[in-house]
Hints:
Strand content of chain A: over 45%
Radius of gyration of chain B: 14 Å
Helix content of chain A: under 10%
Number of helices of chain A: 0
Distance between the termini of chain A: 37 Å
Mean pLDDT of chain A: 93
Structural class of chain A: mainly beta
Oligomer: heterodimer
Largest interface: A-B, 25 and 26 residues
Strand content of chain B: over 45%
Number of strands of chain B: 11
Radius of gyration of chain A: 13 Å
Mean pLDDT of chain B: 92
Distance between the termini of chain B: 41 Å
Number of helices of chain B: 0
Order of helices and strands of chain B: EEEEEEEEEEE
Helix content of chain B: under 10%
Order of helices and strands of chain A: EEEEEEEEEEE
Amino acid sequence: KAGVTQTPRYLIKTRGQQVTLSCSPISGHRSVSWYQQTPGQGLQFLFEYFSETQRNKGNFPGRFSGRQFSNSRSEMNVSTLELGDSALYLCASSLATGLGYGYTFGSGTRLTVV
Amino acid sequence: AQSVTQLGSHVSVSEGALVLLRCNYSSSVPPYLFWYVQYPNQGLQLLLKYTSAATLVKGINGFEAEFKKSETSFHLTKPSAHMSDAAEYFCAVSAGQADDKIIFGKGTRLHILP
């Protein structure tokens, strides 16, 4: 079956712009989580959605937002981009939240802010 | 709150030698523990997970990990390293309760020496 699909794979944006990243989970998976990965900070949790509801949120400013649609696809949006937002953004899907299910990750979207 | 500490951001082993990647966790409740591997320009792939069924967990590619509650450790091992094992490895913890997110360690980059 198809894995987790993230689009686009690469993105270059200018400081101050906004960006929307997309994630399609594995069919049947209802939980989608987003992480920011940078060399200095490692993997930092952004947020988690389950059945269109945000269940968890990390310590990121309000410029970072997300949503989940009825088909479980998810988008995350970053407004007023800063140079420090340059990172690999990873989406992960799971059958449900918690309970040790573990995640299946997409290949990520590499965002570069110039 | 849960946390994970991976000892050593870089580990080098010779091809054919034992691989040992260290992970210690902190959790206020019995945890679920995971090891993930990340190859360049890819997302994370689940190697194995501990969900309290057995303390010695076998994963893919010949890796295994042992849960030691008294030491709060979940070290990853492989008897004989292959060149293809060169990658970054992440230990992660979850409290396993509904709405609980997975927290990742900073990662250990494994180098295989010919």
